[in-house]
Design goal:
It comes from Streptomyces flavalbus. The protein has helices at about 1-65, 125-135, 145-160, 190-200; strands at about 70-75, 80-85, 115-120, 135-140, 165, 175-180, 180-185. It is of the alpha/beta class.
């Protein structure tokens, strides 16, 4: 009789101990889930705060034109050079540039692909300016440029890494070449100044981010 009682007591203790361990395991799981959920909430708040701050920063940068100072000054060789400071902030809003096409300034975080890319439609200035920052030369033309010249320039651009080409209807001259902080007009695709400009300014000394990619950005 005593043996049966002892066996029953031992089994009961074993079941209680098993239940206790199960409860402890559940409690540990609850704590882990609580901690994980809290961490997710904190991370979300941090990310939200960073996005808010970045958005506010972008808004401020876009509105603060005083960061770009100076003007484009014509040189004796036909190349105009920006005399002053060109800001380089990443912004999300549109930028009002002092010259067309722009020679630098605030720009969007993603560049236009510029590995000899020819765009038949206008591209956003803010993306093209980022390409200039990477050392690209931007070849632009308007409707006054002869089709033969446009085709010849397109063929040249396609063979030249760190270049891009697109129409800019409101530019002052039919064909223009732009690098970071530098710009000139040319008379035709055969103008020897086309080759001179490309040779000097493709990945030239003016490049703020020499060696940065001209692929992996935006395309049409």
């Amino acid at each position: 009789m005593g043996s049966a009682k002892n066996k029953s007591s031992a089994e009961r203790k074993a079941r209680i101990e098993e239940m206790r361990r199960a409860e402890q395991a559940r409690e540990r799981r609850r704590r882990i889930l609580t901690i994980t959920a809290s961490a997710v909430v904190v991370a979300a708040l941090v990310v939200g705060g960073v996005i808010l701050v970045q958005s506010q920063s972008d808004d401020s940068d876009s509105a603060d034109d005083s960061k770009t100072t100076g003007k484009l000054v014509a040189g004796a060789d036909g190349v105009s050079t920006w005399k002053g400071t060109l800001s380089r902030n990443h912004v999300t809003k549109s930028v009002t540039y002092p010259v067309t096409p722009p020679v630098g300034g605030d720009h969007q975080a993603v560049w236009m692909n510029c590995n000899g890319d020819v765009y038949t439609e206008a591209v956003k200035n803010e993306n093209a300016v980022h390409s200039l920052e990477h050392g690209a030369v931007w070849v632009t033309y308007n409707s006054k440029a002869p089709k033969a010249d446009v085709d010849a320039l397109a063929a040249k651009v396609k063979q030249t890494p760190y270049t891009l080409m697109s129409p800019v209807e409101d530019q002052t001259d039919p064909i223009m070449l732009t690098a970071w902080g530098h710009q000139r007009s040319v008379t035709s695709a055969d103008d020897p100044n086309v080759g001179k400009f490309l040779e000097k300014f493709v990945q030239g000394e003016q490049t703020p981010e020499k060696g940065a990619a001209c692929t992996g950005g935006l395309g049409q």
